Amino acid sequence: MAQSLPTLNVTLNDKGAVDQSYIYLTPNNVPGQGPYVFSQSGKLVFNIANRLGKVYNFKPCTYQKTLRYCLWKTTGSVYNGYGNGTASIYDNNFQLVHALPTSDYHEFTIKQSMDPSTGALSDIALLTTYNPVKRDLSAYGIADENDEGWVLDCHLQAIDATSNKVLFDWSALDHVPLSESLVQPTGAINGLTSQFAWDYFHMSSIARLGNGDYILSSRHTSTIYLISSANGSILWRLGGQASSFTLQNFKFNSQHDVRVLSFDAEANTMSLSFFDNAYNTFTPAQGDSSAKIVELNTATKTARLVQQFNPPQPGFQSGDGGSVQVLPRGNVFVGWGSIPYVTEYTKDGKLVYEAYFGGLGSSASSYRAFKAPYGGVRNPA
Q1: What pairs with residue 149 in β-bridges?
Q2: How deeply is 51 buried, as exposed, middle or buried, from its count of CB atoms within 10 A (0-12, 13-18, 19+)?
Q3: Tell me: the pLDDT tens digits for 63-97?
Q4: What is the number of other CB atoms lying within 10 angstroms of the CB of residue 260?
Q5: Dihedral of CA 99/162/153/61: which sign?
Q6: How far apart are CA 154 and CA 158, in angstroms?
Q7: pTM for this one?
Q8: If 106 and its partner were Cys, which of 128, 192, 280, 346 is the partner (CB 3.0–4.6 Å)?
Q9: Considering Cα of 309, then 310, then 313, then 316, what sign does the dihedral take?
């Protein structure tokens, strides 16, 4: 009997207003999980079902000046929000071109970096890694015979995507105190063993500025950090318990997928987009999830909400994942993470597209969702 595959069920499609690119999804926790490409109308264009394990962050990418396809796939289990796998790059025939081993799926992005002295371009992979380590957790009532417990140390890594050489490595434990976490040791992250290590930080995205510094998102501190590429120091925090900024007309919690829309060092301004989960499964929900665009003034240390994109119906509380993509003509495409929906809005907030591949209460999810042209990727023979 042929296996039932995930379908994209379109409930709203304003064809005159919607970006006509294709939709890239990674349905998980359902039969037929894997990378998928759908047309705007919901027609299945490409899929690799049940052959790669769990898959995350599937999208077109540029590697060695050529259109490729990037994704993260498991090589073991995904447990408590992280797991071992490979950041993998495929060609149009879905043959593996290159792989980078890593212990986490939350970020895999390839950025082109130019050598200022030669003008040569190189491919830099931004990756997250999660490593359980022992620490003194006696202040949290956790101790073994050596007065230690287990905590997850999240790392930001920039890696040469050709040689796999680590160019920059930043440890959360080296820079962010445990007291900054808003999620205490509990349940499956109780800190008693390496398998149940306390996920105090939970790194959820990495972006790189033109000057080489990094924008880093932590779900469990509800903070967005600017990290110096020169020495790894934290240059500022947005949100959380130690915010460098005054948030003038908004708040956020447990965010994912923070992206830099603009940065003007001379004008001291920066615009960011991100998915505000408002919920993380460990602490009470702070309302419905939403997509946000905010503007920072890095001189006055103020931040204001520019636009918020609300869910298509009440009750969207996504405890994991989520993505926000500002499209070339200004529309905003939102993946709802653990809620198996995608939506698109005009830049003034009008909902013009809605589709689902599960439903509220379904176990289906896609960590992120992307829109991009269809580059012709084909199923392998």
Answers
A1: 135
A2: middle
A3: 999 999 999 999 877 777 787 899 999 999 999 99
A4: 14
A5: negative
A6: 13
A7: 0.96
A8: 128
A9: positive
